[in-house]
Design brief:
mainly alpha; 2 strands; 2% strand
Length: 185
């Protein structure tokens, strides 16, 4: 609880259980929440309608901001999902060895998502060759999904969006999904 009152993500409030508590209880990540999904929607609207209509520096940066915020949370969700699947497989194969543990803690998955996003975003924005290779690789996945016109542009000023990776990390940690365990001293 903060000076402003209870967090909207709190499990219980005066109005009853939070819908976010139900999502978390079902094993969903911070990615399945209004703010990150809003960033996905912002990127979709920006790329589909705003960029073609206005094509300026603002529309270029909007997508980068959205990507830097939602991608770490999305990667963390994928890592957590893969970790849970691996834990179930281990439990099925080695049931007598005890209960299954997830391959990655929520904190590790969140940090991995943030680091992976920054590790891919920075070279793409600094190197035209890296942007070209990344776009070619993305086109392989995008073509079957109907995304034929993919364009990646190396623009060092897009690195201004990089702090949003940190904001995504803070958001995930605030949600309680990615708090690092304290070291015992």
């Amino acid at each position: 609880m903060s000076a402003r009152g209870p967090s909207p993500f709190a499990a219980e409030s005066a109005r009853g259980p939070s819908p976010f508590a139900a999502l978390s209880a079902r094993g969903h990540s911070p990615f399945v929440a209004p703010l990150p999904l809003g960033a996905v929607a912002l990127m979709a609207v920006n790329d589909r309608w705003l960029k073609p209509a206005y094509h300026n520096a603002w529309t270029g940066k909007l997508s980068d901001v959205a990507i830097c915020f939602f991608l770490p949370l999305y990667v963390a969700a994928l890592v957590a999902l893969a970790g849970r699947a691996a834990a179930r497989l281990r439990a099925a194969a080695f049931a007598p060895m005890g209960p299954a543990r997830a391959a990655f803690s929520p904190a590790a998955a969140l940090w991995l998502g943030a680091l992976a996003t920054a590790a891919v975003f920075v070279p793409i924005k600094l190197s035209p060759a890296a942007a070209e290779h990344f776009c070619a690789a993305l086109a392989v996945v995008g073509r079957p999904l109907g995304l034929a016109r993919l364009r990646c542009v190396a623009d060092p000023t897009d690195l201004l969006a990089l702090p949003f990776v940190g904001l995504a990390l803070a958001y995930g940690r605030r949600r309680g999904e990615g708090a690092l365990p304290r070291r015992k001293t």
